[in-house]
What does this fold into?
Amino acid sequence: MSNTIKPYTMLTDFVTGNDVPNIGAEENRQAIERFLVERKGYLKEDIQIDVDIEMTVAGESYRSQLDLVVSTDGGKTRFMAIRCAAGSLGSREREIVAAARLLDDCLIPLAVVSDGKTAIVLDSASGKKTGDGLDAIPSKKEAIKKLESLEIQPFPLHRREKEKLIFRTYDRDNVNVQRNI
It folds into this structure.
């Protein structure tokens, strides 16, 4: 079998203005980036792209990236982690919840999976669905209000190892992504 990479075109990333390969769910990510800015009131500076996530799982280093991490204040207070999917959203729910629990010392309150046309919004602490559809994604104003009344907690240390295994297991299925070309 050949190691030849399938040819791809390039897109201009809406948030960064950088050229990115149009592979996997990239068009879906561009749709969500535009939606967050144009319809939900976030600034481009509130949206981080390809956020590195690193962990040690069963004694081995594991590195990956999250598609989008959204804050309300230019990156200081992370509010929402988003996985952009090209297929079934339901199959990516557990992955993004685990990522929202692991990326920082404290939980990122919301985990979202989207295909650019619809979304599933999940509470990262409980893992329970809080809404369906793009309109279920909170606006920046709604996020700021929610953060005012929310006490963000660290994810329990004794549960982190299980979450690492869950994240790595699902994330390894993401073969058609920029970091693998």
